[in-house]
Fold this protein.
Amino acid sequence: MALKGIFVNDSMLSTDHDYSGSEFKPLYSTKVTVTGGSASHGRASGVARSDDGAFSMELRIPEEMGGDNLGPNPEQLFAAGYAACFHGALSLLARRHLLDPEELSVEAAVAFGRDPSDGGYQLRADLVVNWPGVDIQRAAPLLERATALCPYAKMTRQGIPASITIAS
């Protein structure tokens, strides 16, 4: 019998539970607040804290951008989230197709740079999947499906719905 999902705290994560509807259906929500720290600058000395207290981290600017490199930066956090999400999507698909995801690894390279179109900033994100023992021909369709399944991959492809408001 094929393992179609994994159980985490009594809830099943699976590609078998596809949703079709006309509205976004949240499965999980979180809030992280960043404050400016000693330099009053979120990227340079900020502190990021989740609303549930499970995550609290000081942020720093990388040395290449003039920072002290004494802590993680937002690009590293984004890279970790993107790699973890894509790994999870690919792992679910691997199990569905009776492939062992144990040796699977996903590396996310994120670059922060100038946007030539407007002089502002932009990110570039590239993933590298390493899956020893799995033939490229067999893995390719699963990577394509994982790209459609992983919301970080969707975001890098097409942007995300977003809003910016000022709290009252």
Summary: Residues 73-160 form a domain with the GMP Synthetase; Chain A, domain 3 fold (CATH 3.30.300.20). The two ends are 54 Å apart (CA to CA). Strands lie at 5-8, 11-14, 32-35, 47-50, 56-58, 105-114, 121-130. The chain has two domains: 19-72, 73-160.
